[in-house]
Structures are given as structure tokens and as C-alpha cells.
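Hi F.,

I've been meaning to write this up properly since the lab meeting, where we talked about keeping a consistent format for the predictions we share between groups. The idea is simple: the sequence comes first, exactly as it goes in, then the C-alpha cells exactly as they come out, then a line or two of notes. No screenshots and no reformatting. I'm using this chain as the first example so we have something concrete to point to.
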Amino acid sequence: QVQLVESGGGLVQAGGSLRLSCAASGSIYMTNAMGWYRQAPGKQRELVAVVGSGGNRNYVDSVKGRFTISRDNAKNTVYLQMNSLKPEDTAVYYCNARIYTYNGKVDTYWGQGTQVTVSS
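Output, unedited:
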């Protein structure tokens, strides 16, 4: 089985920074796209950023220029550096990965979520 474990959330003042990490472990043959989603209270979950296996990146418009997604393929880990945080960034952040396992299957896995709270 595969597990995604997130860390790095917390409480920060507006204008501050946080770095989220998400490590995948288990019977992993290869990790394809990895990304971060967020869900604020009363809102739908939205894609924040995604990085492909080749390093190509995409961001939701609201975080462009402030957030940076990166990955370490050797560690099966994805990061989200969040700078210039705003109160509207407050949400539970979930990591997501498309993973091929050694039994020949591919599936999408989710982390448990980590709370990010930005105070004004």
C-alpha cells in the first residue's frame, strides 16, 4: 500500500511564509504528477499547484508569484513553499499523487490534510 504524509501547516500572520511537505511511502514503482489542493470552510476543494514527473508546473491564478511547488523524486516528496500568505489562503491543504505500484497498478492517493491558518 501507499501512504502520503503531510507536514508543515500551522498558524501564520498575513505576509508570512510556510513550507508544506508531503512524503509518499510504500510499494512505489514510479510517481507521476504530484500536487496540492486546498479546501476552505464552505468551499469546494480546489487545485493549488501541480508538478509533473518532468518538472513542469502549474498554479491556480490566485497563488501565482507567491507559491512554489517542487519535488524530490528520490524521496518521493513534494513541497509547497508559500510566501506572502493572505487570510484567503486559510484552508486545509491536501497533497495528491498519481503513483504506479510494483503490482502493476496505478492510482491516485491523498494525504490526510494539514491546516493552514493565516491571520490578518
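Notes:
The longest strand covers residues 28-39.
The radius of gyration is 14 Å.

If this format works for you, I'll send the rest the same way.

G.
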